[in-house]
Amino acid sequence: MSGFSSLNIIPGLNKQDLPVLYIALPILNESELLPRLMDCILHQDYQSFRVFACVNQPDEWWEIPDKRAICEANLQTLCYLEEFSGSDITVIDRCTPGNGWKGKRHGVGWARKTVMDAIERVARDQDIIISLDADTTFSEHYFSSVTGNFASHPEAVALAVPYFHKLTGREDADRAILRYEIYMRYYSLNLWRISSPYTFTALGSAMAFPVWAYRAIGGMTPKMSGEDFYFLQKMRKYGKMLFNNTEKVYPAARFSDRVYFGTGPAMIKGNMGDWSSYPVYASHLFDELKMTTDLFEEFFFRTGSTPVVEFLRNLLKEEDPFLPLRQNARDPKTFIRACHEKFDGLRILQYLKNRQQDTTGTDEDHLSAFMRKYYPAETEEMKIDLAAISFKRSPLKELDQIRLFLMKKEEEYQVTSGLL
Q1: Average pLDDT for 201-206
Q2: Same domain, 262 and 293
Q3: What is the pairing mode between strands 241-242 and 158-160?
Q4: Phi/psi at 129 (nearest 5 deg)?
Q5: Residue 298, burial from CB neighbour count under 10 angstroms (0-12, 13-18, 19+)
Q6: Is the pLDDT score of 264 beyond 80?
Q7: Is residue 227 located within the same domain as residue 353?
């Protein structure tokens, strides 16, 4: 893993100046899928990289009969990784008896932080961390695409990598992943159209960032799950992010309870008919967000009355949620930035969940209304009866057509966004 076959992707850099890519990989019960990922890694056309893997599970699982098989699978993974002893792979053992997580410090958030912190201790500022999961695949050009992207945008603090879930051929899995991906892309598109700073889609398998930025924000804050969302939000508050890349990653579409929040658990709950945690929000709720964010400059002088302000009053128990920001801001520009940092991606999501309770209509109603309003001509060309669309009953071909259309519109935003 020490070659430099892609030197020409960054004109003007000498061999010694090329960044080393550090692959941050948490692993739990992935002995079946890991070889596929390693094959992708080993066949990259950019060969200046090192892999750091954290094989992990709570130590107490060794004493729990239902969890014993996972512990054994993790031992198989350790043995498998030993086969690469001649390669540049660092394995962090958080799975053998006595070395597993203890107490509340466990889960993918801790595994991801552990492996990234280990990288940070040995890497240079100009090196790059690529966050992956074991169920992910990508082309042989992925590493070089990330390296070239950061070389072209040296001030970028992070890259939210475009993603795509390939269908499996299983009706239940494909219906669930299409519903989930439509939710994510619909959410992202609405944030794009209102110019929210928090338009990123956070996937642990689809993030990259320079080591200097990781150090600047004090590293990753561990969470039991959802750590990728909080991490990218932290990065976004610190600086500008990239949202476009010439190569995608392809996470697996599978039912999985390895984490408490994310694709796998969403598919499991959705397959049982529960999509309450991932609703297709009425698009006018995003307009309410924009109505308030457009007033941030006026709030520098006096806080107005909007649904968002009222929500923050109730949530934060503050009569004027923007008063402390006004008192500490030097000028309107710093005040507006502080407003966006206070009303961040988490607050946006909380607001939408709160307001969605007062809306009428189904998820399908909200999706079809959005498409008709913002993309009327293209929606007409799709020749899908949106009034009859059903996540439960519509043919998978139609749902996939909608997914691909939303992805295309999202890519148009990403390509034109540059560095935000």
Answers
A1: 95
A2: no
A3: parallel
A4: -100, 125
A5: exposed
A6: no
A7: no
pLDDT digits (tens, 9 = 90+) for 309-330: 999 999 999 999 999 999 999 9
Domain co-membership, 211 together with 107: yes
Say if residue 155 is in the same domain as residue 28: yes
Write the CATH number for 236.
3.90.550.10
Q: Which residue in 398, 383, 192, 180 sits closest to 283, CA to CA?
A: 192
Domain that holds residue 267: 7-163+201-271
* CA distance linking residue 95 with residue 13, whole number of Å: 41
175, two tokens: 């219906």
Question: d(Cα 389, Cα 81) in Å, to the nearest integer?
Answer: 46
- pLDDT attached to residue 255: 66
- Token match 């596929």: residue? 36
Mean pLDDT check: name the lowest of 59-63, 153-157, 224-228, 383-387.
224-228
Do 319 and 234 sit in the same domain of this protein?
no
Q: Which helix (H) or strand (E) holds 176?
A: helix 171-193
Q: Report residue 61 as tokens.
A: 């699982």
The H helix count followed by the E strand count for the chain is: 17, 9
Residues 291 and 379 occupy one common structural domain = yes
Question: In which element (H, E) is residue 101 found?
Answer: none
Pairing of strands 128-131, 21-27: parallel
Across the range 252-257, mean pLDDT stands at 76
Q: Phi-psi bin for 418: left (phi > 0), alpha (psi -120 to 50), beta?
A: left
**Encoded amino acid at 417, one letter:** S
Task: State whether the Cα torsion 346-347-353-356 is positive or negative.
Answer: negative
Contact residues for 132 (Cβ-Cβ < 8 A; gap 6+): 23, 24, 25, 37, 204, 205, 249
pTM of the model: 0.93
Classify residue 194: in a domain, yes or no.
no
